[in-house]
Amino acid sequence: MTGAPVRVVGSLGTAQTLAWASSYYLPAMLAAPMASDLGIPTPTVYAAFSGAMVVSALAGPWAGQAIDRRGGRVVLVGTSLIFALGLAMLGLSEGLWTMVAAWLIIGVAMGAGLYEAAFSSLVRLYGHHARGAITGITLIAGFASTVGWPLSAWMETQFGWRNACFGWAGLHLLIGLPLNAWLPKLPRQAKHERSAVSDPTRAVSSPSPAPTAGRHGYATALLAFVFAATWFISTSMATHLPRMLEATGATLAAAVAVGALIGPAQVAGRVLEFGFLRRVHPLLSARLAALAHPAGVAVLLMAGPVMAPAFAILHGAGNGILTIAKGTLPLVLFGAQGYGARQGWLMMPARIAQAAAPFLFGLALDAWGANALWLSGAIGLAAGGALMLLRAQPPKSC
C-alpha cells in the first residue's frame, strides 16, 4: 500500500465499516420497528435521518479544519464516542423529539467521522502518497452494507431495535475507538506545518503549480457540483432502486436480485481503480465513472428490464470509483495543504443533496415512472461535463 502501512489502512477501513454500518445503513433495518414502537410514521424516522445528514454537512468543515491542525486521530476517536452517545440515546428514546435529538447527534458524528474525515486523516499523514490508502479503506468499507444490514436485522430480531442500537454503541467503544486510537501521531515534520494552514505562502509542496485564486474558485465550484450530483444519484438509487426497476417492467424478485449486484460492482470498480486505473490521472477515471450511470440508464430504457443487470453493474462500478475520486481529486487538483477544511466545504452541498435525494427522486418516480431515470441520467451527464471542464494536472506525485 504505497505511502501508508497496511496496519493503518486495515484499522481505519474497519473503523469506517463500523461507522457506515451503524449510521448510513441503520434506518433500512431499524426504521420500521422504531417507528412502530414510538408510535410515529416510518417516513418520520427517515426525515430525522435526513436531518442528521444536514447536520453532517455543517459539521464537515469544522472537522476538516481540526484534522488539518491536529491530525485525524483525536477527531476520529472523538467521533467514536459521539457515535456511541447518539446510538445509546436512540435506543433510549421515548418519543419523536428524543429520537430526533439522537439522530442529530449521530449526524455530528457522521460529519466528522465518515469517509471525508478518514481521507483527510490519511492526507495529513502521508500527503500526496495517500491515493493508494484512500482506495484501500474504501475497498474495506465497501462491505459496510454487507455487514451492517444482516447484523442490524439479526440484533433487532433477537433483542429488539433498542438493544440493536445499544449493540452498535458498544461496538464503537470496544472496536471503533481502539482502532481509531491506533492511528499514528503526526510526524514531526507535519507538526511545524500547522501554521501553514492559515498561511498559504508556507504551504507544503504540491504536485503542480498552485492555481490562481480565480482558477481555484472555479475548480472548487465545479468539483462541489460534481460531488453533489453524484451523491444525489447514488442516494436516489440506494433508496428507490427496487421500485424504479419494477417501473421498467421487472418483477420484484428480479429487482431485488439485480439490486444485489450493485455492492459487488462497487467493490469491483474500486479494485479496478486500485489496479489499472491507478496508473492514470484520477480525473480521467472520475470522468469515466461519472458517465457510467448515464450509460446504464440509456441501456436500461432502450432495451428494457432484460438489461437491468448491465445497468446495476455500470451504476455500481461508477459509484465505487467516484467514492475514491471524492478523496483523490481534491488532493491532486489542489494539493495536500488545507485538505481537510477544503474537503469539508466541498462535501457540504453533497450532504445536502444526499438528504434531499430520497424525497425529490421519489416525487419524480411517482410522477414519471421509469422515465424518472432520464432525470438521474441527465444529472450524471452534467457531472461528467463538469469534470471535462476541469484541467488535469500532472499526476507525477500521486
TrEMBL record:
It is found in: Cell membrane. The chain crosses the membrane at residues 45-64, 71-90, 96-118, 130-149, 161-183, 218-238, 250-272, 284-304, 371-390. Keywords: Cell membrane, Membrane, Transmembrane, Transmembrane helix. It comes from the Bacteria. It is a multi-pass membrane protein. Its main location: membrane. The keyword Cell membrane applies. Residues 193-212 are annotated as: Disordered. InterPro entries: MFS, MFS_dom, MFS_Efflux_Transporters, MFS_trans_sf. Residues 1-395 form the Major facilitator superfamily (MFS) profile domain. It holds the Pfam family MFS_1. PANTHER family: CHLORAMPHENICOL EFFLUX PUMP RV0191, PURINE EFFLUX PUMP PBUE. This is MFS transporter. It comes from Achromobacter veterisilvae. The lineage of its organism: Bacteria, Pseudomonadati, Pseudomonadota, Betaproteobacteria, Burkholderiales.
